[in-house]
Amino acid sequence: MNKTLLDNIFPSEASIPEAYRLNERIDQHEYLIDGKLKIWKGEQSPVLSPLYMKTTNGYEPTIIGSTPLLTKEEALVALEAAVKAYDRGHGQWPAFTVSERIEFVEKFLAHMRLKRSEVVKLLMWEIGKSLKDSEKEFDRTCDYIVDTINELKATDRRSATFHNEQGIMAQIRRVPLGVVLCMGPYNYPLNETFSTLIPALIMGNTVVFKPAKYGVLLIKPLIEAFKDCFPPGVINIIYGKGRDTVGALMETGKIDVFAFIGTNKGANEIKRLHPKPHRLKAILGLDAKNPAIVLPDADLDNAVSECVMGSLSFNGQRCTALKILFVHKSIVEEFMKRFIAEVTKLKAGMPWDAGVSLTPLPEPGKTEYLKSLVEDAQANGAKVMNEGGGSINNSFFYPAVLYPVSDKMRVYYEEQFGPVIPIVPFDKVADTVNYVLDSNFGQQVSIFGKDTITIAGLIDAFATQVGRINLNAQCQRGPDIYPFNGRKDSAEGTLSVSDALRVFSIRTLVAAKGNDENKAIIGKIIRNRESSFLSTDYIF
Question: pTM for the complete prediction?
Fold first, then answer.
């Protein structure tokens, strides 16, 4: 990237298309507790956009709004509202039938769809996500909710039957777990947050929801829908610093489920605050250092295309991104030549620019961190192979392709979560296997090649190390019907449309000896609809 383009990466306010301008600050004072929108009159936390503005005084940061800096007291009030609404499983929400809870969620989805343009605009301004990807995130989230509803209907139909084994007849249904603390990530603050929030709610749990640190304002257009579409106390939305709010919630011991997508360090710090750890169920999506392994017989056109997208989609800020590329020595020069050529074609700019791929990074201090990784690699023998690689303009970092990377460098081990691409030459396939075996992470791996014996050996080596092995394709989460998990420090629990319904519930059964008296009792309960649990009703 040449210096002129880098110097002009940020726009002047006047050059922003009218459709994508934020014409006024969004200072949010509302938070949701027990079905009421409360107004916070205390200190606010400023929301800075990664999109700087070009002015006569140079580049200036953009403050697009603020959110409430709630304290321990407000967090605990929210928790008590959730505890009261759950009422040890006897509250209105957990007692509702599946069809009744589905109606509430469908009502929320209808309200949510009306806010598409507002949420998409805030995704662009808050985290620098491109217009295309922001729209995709919103639409995919809506689709996920629809798929969750359909899967729950299918589950409910299966649960309406009776089993008869060894003279014991039983009906098995899924019931909620309790009070859920839900926290999502900044890179997919809508989609990945809702992939835990919606299943938790629809299964009958009550929720305290704390939005991501970045991508926080985009919940504002939806907060009234949450208020209007769910009974009081079922969903409570709080803001503020985690150490002032989340810690207090955990220390009460009243959180039954911890749904968190972030770092393993953050998850460990929060989990250890719970006084009854064996009673806390955790659903965690954490760090990853997903490798690509490019074998000597790989289709280079496909491998390069997939590795470029895998390592640089949304600037590499995805847990499923390819974080390190192992390329066989016999093809590494040709691979790197083609890889750099494709990186050079990627358009840099603002999220609303047509065809843009590279945008500013939302985390304060991120460009300095990435620079330190590049400098460490250079000090230990690697070079930046692409022109302009590692160039910085405030929050914008141009991708740096590093080669040859070795185990002497931090980037070999650390998850960069940004546009730094380490390329490691290898001679023996066993070296790539050892990397995965020794890694603290175990989410996914991508294998590029054709030789079935080699590929089969790698599959068998990695099947007990990672949650997903991708053949001739980048690492990814979807389709959402497939399980999404990880090993080691990468995850706890499994998510997918069906798995999410399972992890936020537990199977409970009513069982009895299959004699005439018990059959008569159960038959009467079912015919007279005397129980909401024991029933053969189901949803079409």
Answer: 0.95
